[in-house]
Amino acid sequence: MTKLDLADVIVVGNSSDDPFAIDVAFTVGQTQDIADVIAMKNFANSEFCPRFISDEEDLDAIGDKLSGKTVVIVSTTSRAVSRQNLAMRNLLIARAAKENGASQVMLVEPDLFYSAQDRGPRAELGETLFERSEADLKKFDGQPFTAQLYAEMLKLAGVDRVLTVHNHSYSVQLMFSDIFNGQFHNLIPYEIYVDYLLNSDIVKFRPGGEGLALCAPDKGARDFVKEMFTRLGLPKAKFILLDKERSGEREVEIKLHDESESTFEEIRGHDIVLFDDMVRTGSTVVKSCEFLRSIEPSKMVFAVTHFYASEEGREKMASTAIDEILTLNTLPTIQNRDVQGRLRKKMVVLKIEKWLARNLSRALGLPMKEDAALYQIDMSSKNPRFIDKIYSNDQLPLLREKRAHSS
Fold it and tell me: Which of 23, 98, 292, 399 is deepest in the core (most CB within 10 A)?
């Protein structure tokens, strides 16, 4: 692909004071503040009207100020603005960019909006990896295939490419890739989790991974967790696969899957990390962790990419079945301690702006800054549970030896 210069790229947010967007822009190398690039106007009747800022005295290139530029819209959730409002703002910012000459518009939305609404009430409305039953079709009866509508609206508004993080839906991935002609980037944060598990003491294990078990909560998460297992490079670690059967909207039965590579007896007393891409109500994850408690793990960690901190979810995940929660700030509101609530004392958030900016630069063909750090850590200072030094690769054997002696 054609290499871009940093001067050809403009990074904005869907609000001018979004700290996540500001951090991404800064890490990419943009020196101008987002508020100096775009004005987020609201008319008296409350209608939103973004405006890319130009010199009022400059009458040259009117409507063509962004000629040759790539505009990147970083879109994250907010406690103050609804997702519906933010989605509409994305459309208007993209259209403003294109109608003022931008050659390319890219949406960076770590938690892709409307992904849960990934199929409709008829079989042709959304691709799945399973044959849709009447019950599955009925679940969507009377509602739109909103994920497709959102993709089509983004395309119509002028968005050319979309970048997101750990999207769980096969239907959404296939459909976005089709609508955007393959320019859909679904980043899976393997390296972030691997780096943190190896370089922190959130879990303890002996050399080679003995004493550590990774858990996939269902077959949908198996490929992700298996790849995590491979990338950890710990041949003595264990991998288990659970199975869940829904008896209602929020009622699930958990058991060991027939295809699980390890048995419960083989992981008894291990530190267990259960991975998932998202959590909403927390019902399934708590049930899974309660189920795993029966084998008396040394520690039970829940790692999740997208943390929707609903009141119900916070209450359920305060359960003693979960010792630690590891998550990313794909929904930046999780860094707010009021949002964390009672979970604050057992939660650590990995801030991914550096990692995201690195992948954004790679996708755009921009030169990348040399920086070993993939993330920053946001956690409660009252609970210093983690080592305060990030180890380099040549120091990892020493860390593992230290763990072996302390086990």
Answer: 292
